[in-house]
Amino acid sequence: MENNIKENLDNILGSLKQYPLQKKIEAINAIYRELHKASPFNEPVDLIQWVPADQVEANDYNPNIIPPPEMKLLELSIREDGYTQPIVVYQDAENERYIVVDGFHRNRIGKEIPDIRERIHGHLPVTIIDKSLAERISSTIRHNRARGTHGIASMSKVVEELYFLGWSDKKIREQLGMEKDELLRLKQFTGLGILFKDREYSLTRE
User: Fold this and answer.
1) Sign of CA pseudo-dihedral 113, 116, 119, 122
2) Is the dihedral of CA 73, 74, 78, 84 positive or negative?
3) Which of 48, 94, 95, 158 is most buried per CB count within 10 Å?
4) To 5 degrees, how large is the angle CA 83–CA 132–CA 86?
């Protein structure tokens, strides 16, 4: 069976040599999608797609900050080791764009560093998750907290936005891995009295 699969794949992949680059990329992506359908692993990382870098956009809520030395190290890592991790995105199919959930800085490297952009043919490796805005925000924070530095001002804006999206204190703490005191400090930083004026927006709102 394995030999038959390999022979069939060799024939298919061999036929791609005649196609221009973009058609090859589209065909490879299609093959990945078909393989994923047959895969027992229903995980985002099981399906990687190469998409045009210009269609990948940063989100407007990411509070993760990488200092310049670490950014240079990331650039060196991608230059020397290649892309070992995909960029996690949400697909906005209507507007033909991909919004970054995790991998903002990997996205920047692939777009801004000429030799790397050329090497990956102006594309970026992505894995797609289909979640609501609030769920994407919490996913970004979870991806970031263990490895990055969050600005207090940016994190307070995240808390504020999740409140207005209807999340309770308990859900915010559970989804973002926060203690009560940390959440209280971030709420205080917003300066918005609405977060404290009654029980619905107080720390007791569970």
Assistant:
1) negative
2) positive
3) 158
4) 5
- Choose among 177, 174, 164: nearest CA to 206: 174
Q: Report residue 80 as tokens.
A: 């020397």
In this predicted structure, the answer to whether residue 3 has a pLDDT above a threshold of 70 is yes
Residues 156 and 67 in one domain: no
Q: Note down the domain range covering 157.
A: 151-201
- Write the pLDDT tens digit of every residue in 133-172: 999 988 888 877 755 555 666 778 888 888 888 888 888 8
pTM: 0.72
Q: Is residue 34 part of a domain?
A: no
Asked if the structure places residue 143 within a domain, the reply is: no
Report phi then psi at 113, rounded to 5.
Answer: -100, 110
144 part of a folded domain: no
Q: What tokens were used for 69?
A: 């030395």
Residue 105 and residue 46 share a domain = yes
Q: In this structure, what token pair is assigned to residue 202? A: 């107080």
Rounded Cα–Cα distance for residues 186 and 183 (Å): 5
Number of domains forming the structure of the chain: 2
User: What does the DSSP assignment read for 10-36?
Assistant: HHHHHHGGGS-HHHHHHHHHHHHHHHH
69, HSE (Cβ side, Cα atoms, 13 Å): 0
Looking at the structure, do residues 75 and 128 belong to the same domain, yes or no?
yes
